[in-house]
Structure formats: C-alpha cells, structure tokens
Amino acid sequence: MTEIDPRHIDPRHSALVLVDLMERMVALPLAPYSGDEVAERAAELAKAFRAAGAPVVLVRAERPGVAEQPPGSGLLPGLAEPGDVEVVKRTVGAFHGTGLDARLRERDVRTLVLAGIATNLGVESTARAAADHGYALVFVEDAMSALTAEEHHASVTLDMPRLGTVRRAAELRLPG
C-alpha cells in the first residue's frame, strides 16, 4: 500500500472515481451520510478534479440479463459533464469486464480517489480490484455511505486503511 498525502493529490496522475451515484441508490436509506450528502460532496469533488485537469470517472450499475433497468438506474442528473469517463458495470466492482483499467492507464492515472455508494460494496469492491491492479488509493470517507453506519464504519476503519489512505473531503487538495 502506498500512503498518499491527500493535501498533495497530483492531478496529472490521479482520477476521481464515483461509484453508483444513481437516483435509485442515492434515494436509499443510507448511513452515516444521506444519499444527498454523498451526492453533494461528490459533485464538489468532481468540480475540483475537473478544474485541476484530472479525470472524473462515473460508474453506474446495470443488472445483467434483464430487458429493462429499474427506474433511477441512470447517473444523477447534472453529475456527468463532457470529458468525463462513464463506466457501466455488471458486477459489484467497476473493473471486471469494463475496460476501466485500460481507460485509466491511457490517461497515465496512478492514484484513484474513491467515493460513492455503498461504502462496503461497490466502493470497496472497486478499491480491492484497483489495489490488485497496482493503483494507489485515497478514500473520501464523508463522500460515501452504506446501508448501515456499522457497515460504513467497518469498511473505513478496518478494510480501507489496509488498501490506501482514508480522509474527509475537506482534507483533499488539488492544485488549480
């Protein structure tokens, strides 16, 4: 694991990865942060990354083998902007079968800053695969949430520190 100083995120080699910020996910009863709180912090992070010239990756899930996706399966309105990378996953994490690794490498990304829903599912699964691919990881604790506060707390205190650096959004700094 590479310890990243969140006060010095290098936008030339970093990307923000926002997992499952879809209407139906944000509407769930989440803890310790509401879906709206997560979405607001994620949008602020995306704005900062774009301003610094760093890629923003927006991940959303599609259920395999169904004719139509459930209502609210698109990204939150207004979240995506031209130039963002959109990834559609059909598994818990964002790497398997999506081409995400190649899309990050062609942009010379080495560090991923992760946020989204749910902390212990989509975000953590994506992080584990990212670690296996050799990326340095930063987790934005207050820009993610889970179905219970206990699940969120377990991920951010037990699992994620073994994979990367856990910080709050206010602690991240990008030049620009």
From TrEMBL:
Residues annotated as domain Isochorismatase-like: 14-170
SUPFAM superfamilies, sorted: Isochorismatase-like hydrolases (SSF52499)
Keyword Ion transport: no
Recorded GO MF terms: hydrolase activity
Keyword flag Transcription: no
Keywords: Hydrolase
Protein's UniProt name: Hydrolase
